[in-house]
């Protein structure tokens, strides 16, 4: 026997079946994991896409390895490369994409359990997802502190530093540490809530993973915490992580915006999605 929302071995799922389970109320607790790919259409390059991703554009900075630009131990003595690229990455005046609007729609339809986002642009909330449904696993750009003495640094001075591409330094007497946005760098701990929120993943009756290469731990392990028999949907340009290894996996390959539009169409939610996106 199988429960309403599990799949017996050998039964392949598809987008239409997933959509019908959401429509008829079998799926009500969707847990989402997001990565940079849902924001590339908003104009923020991701890290790892060939040619367009940030890591392919770092050669002039002569870094020992690409991730050094976001590594805390490198930043501590050489913060200049980070500020050389910060302007291109700072999410000012950006509009949420259709993918972000789709997440707000899931919340509106009361089927969103929780979102883990690796993105630091805050576009999920801008699109209308309630903040208590989101964990910014890698922090955000909304505030900044001296990396050394942890004193907060004013927003207006930070904006200027980013515009000028110049490193802002702590104003505390005798400190002089470089100021760092409250984004989690490699070598830093994730927010304390991560461990607690991680427990929500096994409660999912569907996991939706969008726009991530699943190469950065610990977020990369979240899809593996989904209970066996529960469907997992990947919307991404390419297959990532262990997607495809379970019978209940559905991979919708292509752009995130195209993928959510197809899913919204199957759900009969296309007009709702457009209305929400226009109002975001
Ligand atoms: P990544 O490693 O660069 O992977 C991005 C993934 O998205 C790749 O698999 C791409 O093929 C895919 N992709 C790119 N564009 C699209 C698109 N339009 N539609 C569908 N798929 C697409 O980025 P991850 O998020 O996996 O890596 C984690 C890092 C990246 C986190 O630490 C983030 O903070 C960091 N990051 C965040 C942002 C942001 O906040 N918008 C931007 C760039 C990087």
Automatic annotation (TrEMBL):
CC annotations in GO: nucleus
First-tier enzyme category under EC: transferase
Annotated residues for binding of NAD(+): 36-40, 46-48, 118-121, 212-213, 236-238, 256
Cofactor note text: Binds 1 zinc ion per subunit.
Active-site residue list: 138
Cofactor: Zn(2+)
EC number from the UniProt entry: 2.3.1.286
Amino acids binding Zn(2+): 146, 149, 175
Start and end residues of each Deacetylase sirtuin-type domain: 8-270
GO molecular function per UniProt: histone deacetylase activity, NAD-dependent; NAD+ binding; zinc ion binding
Entry superkingdom: Eukaryota
Reactions that this protein is recorded to catalyse: N(6)-acetyl-L-lysyl-[protein] + NAD(+) + H2O = 2''-O-acetyl-ADP-D-ribose + nicotinamide + L-lysyl-[protein]
Keyword Metal-binding listed: yes
Keywords, comma-separated and alphabetical: Metal-binding, NAD, Transferase, Zinc
Family in the record: Belongs to the sirtuin family. Class I subfamily.
Identification of the protein by name: NAD-dependent protein deacetylase
Organism: Penicillium canariense
Shown part of the complete sequence: 5 to 284 of 361
């Amino acid at each position: 026997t199988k429960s309403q929302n599990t799949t017996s071995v050998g039964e392949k799922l598809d987008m239409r079946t997933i959509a019908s389970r959401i429509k008829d109320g079998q799926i009500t607790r969707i847990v989402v994991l997001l990565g940079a790919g849902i924001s590339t259409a908003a104009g923020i390059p991701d890290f790892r896409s060939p040619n367009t991703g940030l890591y392919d554009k770092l050669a002039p900075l002569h870094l020992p390895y690409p991730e050094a630009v976001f590594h805390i131990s490198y930043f501590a003595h050489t913060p200049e490369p980070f500020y050389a690229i910060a302007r291109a990455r700072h999410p000012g005046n950006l509009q949420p994409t259709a993918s972000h609007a789709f997440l707000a729609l899931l919340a509106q339809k009361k089927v969103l359990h929780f979102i883990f986002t690796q993105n630091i642009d805050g576009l999920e909330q801008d699109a209308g997802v309630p903040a208590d449904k989101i964990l910014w696993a890698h922090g955000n750009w909304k505030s900044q502190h001296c990396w050394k003495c942890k004193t907060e640094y004013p927003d207006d001075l930070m904006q200027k530093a980013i515009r000028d591409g110049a490193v802002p330094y702590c104003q505390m007497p005798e400190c002089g540490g470089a100021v760092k946005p409250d984004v989690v760098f490699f070598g830093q701990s994730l927010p304390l809530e991560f461990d607690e929120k991680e427990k929500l993943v096994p409660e999912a009756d569907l996991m939706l993973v969008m726009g991530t290469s699943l190469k950065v731990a610990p977020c990369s392990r979240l899809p593996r915490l989904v209970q066996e028999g529960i469907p997992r949907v990947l919307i991404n340009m390419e297959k990532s992580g262990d997607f495809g290894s379970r019978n209940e996996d559905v991979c919708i390959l292509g752009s995130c915006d195209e993928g959510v539009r197809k899913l919204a169409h199957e759900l009969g939610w296309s007009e709702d999605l457009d209305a929400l996106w226009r109002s975001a």
